[in-house]
Amino acid sequence: MNIHNASWVRQDIIAASPRPAAQGGVAEWARKNLFNGWLSTLLTVASVTIVVWMAMALAPWLSNSIWRANSLAECRQILDGASGACWGVIRDRWPQLLFGFYPPHLYWRPVLTFALLIAALAPILFRAIPQRALWFSAVYPGFAYWLIWGGSLWFPVAVYCGVVVAAGLLYLTARVSRGLAVASATVGAALWWTYAVQLVSALADDVLPIALTPVASREIGGFLLSIIIGVTGIALSLPLGILLALGRRSSLPLIHLLSVTFIEFIRGVPLITLLFTASLLLNYFLPPGTNFDLILRVVIMVTLFASAYMAEVIRGGLAALPRGQYEAAEALGLDYWKAQRLVILPQALKISIPGIVNSFIGLFKDTTLVMFIGLLDPIALAAAIRANTDWQGIYWELFIFIGAVFFVFCFGMSRYSIHLERRLKTDHR
Amino acid sequence: MATNSGAPRQPLRLNMLFNDARYRGRTVQVIAFCILVLSAAWLVDNTIRNLAALGKDFSFSFLWSKAGYDIAPHAIDYSSTSTHGRAALVGLLNTLIVAAMACVMATFLGVLAGVLRLSDNWIVARLMTVYVECFRNIPTLLWIIVVAAVMSEAMPAPNAFRGESPTASMLLWDSIAVTNRGIYLPVPDFSRSLGQAPGALGSFDLNYAAILAVLALSLLARWALLKHAQQIQSATGERPVTWWKSLCILIAPVVVLLYAIGFHLDYPALKGLNFTGGLQLRNSFIALWIGLSVYTGAFIAENVRSGILAISRGQSEAAHALGLSSGRTMRLVILPQALRIIVPPLISQYLNITKNTSLGLAVGYMDLRSTLGGITINQTGRELEGMLMMMLIYVAISLTISGAMNIYNNRVRLKER
Description:
The complex is a heterodimer.
Chain A: H1 25-33, H2 38-63, H3 72-79, H4 88-99, H5 108-125, H6 134-149, E1 151-152, H7 154-173, H8 178-207, E2 211-212, H9 222-248, H10 253-268, H11 271-285, H12 294-320, H13 323-331, H14 336-351, H15 353-366, H16 378-387, H17 396-424
Antiparallel strand pairs in A: 1-2
Chain B: H1 16-19, H2 21-54, H3 84-117, H4 122-136, H5 140-154, H6 171-174, E1 177-179, E2 182-185, E3 187-190, E4 196-197, E5 204-205, H7 206-236, H8 243-260, E6 263-266, E7 269-271, E8 274-276, E9 279-281, H9 283-310, H10 313-321, H11 326-356, H12 368-380, H13 383-412
Antiparallel strand pairs in B: 1-2, 2-9, 3-6, 4-5, 7-8
């Protein structure tokens, strides 16, 4: 077909049109991101209304904040009818919210423990710290126990000696048989802890008494309590969860059955019932006359509870590993534990980091439930403060403070997990 | 030529039980079994000795004795003269009611927030991120207590509704009253009521039974109508117009029945010191319901978001290439695939809600834990039996829900190779 036969052909060139006015720039951005269609416009208007309304309600309340008041009545008197936050309650009850009823002249002990906690966690969390510092992390739990509860230094030392005894037995019997070595180390440590610890620490006390003023468990409260339960539970629930997950995937039917029963039972009941079991029923199950610390009971229950969830998370990671990894480990001639330690678990744990950290966060939030069995966690203290005549009728200020502290911890943990995921990322998928 | 029959069998020596992979598994299991039996025996022995020392026996007969306490919202007939067993049942129903309500609301909030967080709208996506992060990182117990505190401290007392110029007024044309004693809502009432009939769990209302029966019959009739229309369409190729007929079938009988039994709304009204009539939603219920919903909604939002993000972009592009509209793309291509990813974690969130209803203790909601696991235990001193029974009930609920989840998972699983 010839071009001249076509019905119409443009002869002249159209002049270039000017650049669109709003390409880029605020107006174009707003059109794309805020007013893109009628639904989007509606949503934008609604959200802006809500934000402005909240800001209008909050601004005078926050700007009229009263920090120096010793009771709600005094606060209202200063405000003189205006709306305003009464942060005086935080200032007034600050030590209580942090430490519960810990003796005030001993506050340096929990503060020092917390500072050392950061030092002990640093080599675990960040690679930049020299790994020799892990020795301090290993010694830290005993030292922290001594600092917070006081008493003789020799008691935690004697408990640590149990580990030394176990290691010694392991070394001595390792040549005979590995199974025997593990068994003898376990039995040896258990015997040491049941029978020798009291004796040894009493003996050492006579020779060289080093002791701090003892503080009873019922005096510990506030965020100190939440952090004690949270950190201990987190530290213990991960290894226990790994063992349970391995047990659930074990080819030994009895071990598998035990793990499944434990995990499903724990996951089936609310934590609160387990805590009540710890406070009400434990006396039924233990030999008559035994009685042990309420915080210890709670830590055990919280750990068991969290470890069941942890086991499910790690099981997911184990299941996500390609079969080839297991087969490669076997082909290299690694036995079960070596294969798990060197090949399987490093990869499975890496896959399950988000789930593991979520379950840590859940555990930390669940520490608030201890208020139901009479421990004074921050929420229980808030209830106590609100029941006090000075501060009756206050609620937002207290709850905002407590919520903000929990938010900082939990949000921090989730950010750290994102950092860890990025650091450990090795694949190209 | 002799065939190789593997390594020569060695006689069994003692250290082979630990060192030989053929026997080690069995050895470990035997040891584990012994430890299990011994510790179980130790626990049972301790329990028997402790019970004997306290002079108690192990029996569930307390379930048939008189409870002697009141339970505020009770879905089935209950009074303080009822038995402890019935109190436990009422508590269980309360647990299930608040759990079901919270599941519905949390799903609504979660789906809304999850979808909006993915929207192109900048400000809405940011707001939803703030919602999710705030509610996920703060304990649910705190949210429940906050709602309870707001309800009881910031809402007007019933007294404020009284007088010529009241400081508080009812919402929605004088039908809903929000007070510091709870929210009062209008409820359906029947002036020519059909009365009550005795049932297995107590008497039930014949009016609602009649309405349900009529609705079921209507649905049956509509089903027949549609089937008939389908037959005509198959035979003649033309489908008769059915929409107005099915609308009539669905609505007319119920309306007639409602008129016959004198349906009207019973509005709450201020009488004396408090509101009477209508339905009172107690503060404890509202706190538990709202607190659990907003908290779990944040988790569901994340599940929904990750489920939608997990569907590869190629799927929606393929659907567009086939000429499907964006609504149909969502309904026919994206959602069916996303749901497979969303539903399992969604159901475990429902499970969490059900277990977290036990936090109602903080605001005084009378759930299973507060009746069977609380007052009943305190009154009868049967901690062991009460706690055991309560835990088993919770485990049963949880196993039922996870069983349903497994059935669903198997049905929607990708059939590979």
